[in-house]
Amino acid sequence: MNLATHPVFVSLAPVFLLIGLGYLAGRLRWIRDAAVKDLSNLVFMVLIPALLFRTMSAVRFEVLDLRPLLAYFPAALLLLGVSIAWRGATRHSVVVALAGTFSNMVMIGITLVELAYGKAGLVTLLTLVSVHALILLSVGSVVLELVVAREARERGGDAPHLWATVGSVIKGTLIHPIPLPIICGLLFAQTGWSLPVVIDKPLQLLGNAFGPISLVLVGVSLAATPLAGHWRAAAEVMVAKNIVLPLLVGLGAWAVGISGLPLTVVVVAAALPVGANVFLFAQRYNAAQELITASMGLSTFAALVTLSLTMTVMSWVA
User: Which CATH number fits domain 3-317: 3.30.70.260, 3.90.1150.10, 1.20.140.150, 1.20.1530.20?
Assistant: First the structure.
């Protein structure tokens, strides 16, 4: 088959070309830091909710396949636990372990899966997205708060109340511009109504703008990502995220009997590079900030190869 017409190449090329364009714009300072923050707010507060609500507003519960959750999250939590145990239970190790398990399902994954696998693939991905942050970041928060409480006790200080932190994390991950429109869209779909054209068309236009803007922003962020001094540790995170996690998720999918398109989507989702939310944890807990930034950059650059290979293998297997 001609490379230029191969489905994997056709799907990946626009994604990485737009990231490359953003990288060039960042290096040339066409898009400055203040603008990046404003554009990120536009993407997360307007464009993503429009896309997610519109996509899920036509999905009925009876056709929703929840098996991908059983394939993805036990594998991700297993890798998270092993990574923390291997490095030791410290703030640094927990944040690094999160980087090795938390995929960039939104900024890169949504556009890639829609291009490669259409609306059916996107519904499977959004099933994962709806609880991705809730499960992984909540578990990460609980473990981090336990570590912080232990450190406070060792210093003789007052430990923060764990359950208050857990409640705050769950509330923050549910009332959020990613899971909230997914839930609202699903609830709307169960009414059997259709979106009026006067509402549906603006949502469609906003959703169409999400892909190119978000990918350009990924490239701009990469342009400001330092890798010097963190190659080895960042490479370990990249291997865990880009290679080990998709292998574990693939085994989990096989164990619960998933095949075809859902199998492909869950494995590709696991093979996506490190998601940006991990850096927020690194900032909040003042742990491994430079390493997480380097890991995000290296993981995204490496995905040119690892993600291409994953998608090619899945096109043969599924």
Answer: 1.20.1530.20
